[in-house]
Design a protein that fits this description.
Strand order of the largest sheet: 1-2
Distance between the termini: 25 Å
Helix content: under 10%
Radius of gyration: 18 Å
Shape: elongated
Number of helices: 0
């Protein structure tokens, strides 16, 4: 994992708003990139 000081989140790709009476909920969605798998020394 990268150092937290170097982490820069990308923009949210989708936003949803849900209303339940007077209560509002904002949901932001972001696709997270995963580091490539480490290769194992076994064959």
């Amino acid at each position: 994992m990268t150092n937290r000081e170097q982490y820069e989140p990308g923009p949210a790709s989708e936003a949803q708003v849900h209303k339940d009476g007077e209560k509002w909920t904002l949901i932001l969605t972001r696709e997270l990139r995963h580091p490539p798998r480490k290769k194992c020394g076994r064959r």
